[in-house]
Amino acid sequence: MRRANRGDGAAFHRFLTLVTPPLRGLIRARGRALPPDQHEDVLQEVLLAIHLKRGSWDGSAPVRPWLYAVARHKVVDAFRRRGQRLHLPLEDLAEVLAAEPGPAPLAARDADRMLGMIDARSAALVRAVRLEERSTEDAAAALGLTPGAARVVLHRAMRRLTDLAGRIK
């Protein structure tokens, strides 16, 4: 999946080929109350969702819980379309629920992009104080600023970033 997310189409094809049988088994097990002819439809929805949402997978995390979550959501959607309820055992979610929430998958990329839109000194100060959670005094000293000047630069940088974010929406 990592190679596929870097643009390797052949790797993505191999990945889908490898994950299809276990996903098919999961869909059959979780979707027992669905008509058997709908299992393949749900599988196709899962494979399409994997293709469309593969950028949301955190490459530093295992892929299996992410895959199973996508499959579970599609099975639940199939039950909803039929007007049925589905009760999934909590044990199936133990891996996902026990995981500490991490940063948003694209947050670092978005922060870098936004910081690239302001001057380098302001960006360095925002990165140090807001992202790395260093004190204003420490960041000011590292940048050769007084603490008061650093607070002014930080305030203006944050206002500029807010304005830029408003224009991007």
TrEMBL record:
Occurrences of domain RNA polymerase sigma factor 70 region 4 type (ranges): 111-161
The RNA polymerase sigma-70 region domain, residue ranges: 34-83
GO MF assignments: DNA binding; sigma factor activity
A biological process term (GO) from this entry: DNA-templated transcription initiation
Domain of life of the source: Bacteria
Keyword field: DNA-binding, Sigma factor, Transcription, Transcription regulation
Family per record: Belongs to the sigma-70 factor family. ECF subfamily.
Protein name: Sigma-70 family RNA polymerase sigma factor
Taxonomic classification: Bacteria, Pseudomonadati, Pseudomonadota, Alphaproteobacteria, Rhodobacterales
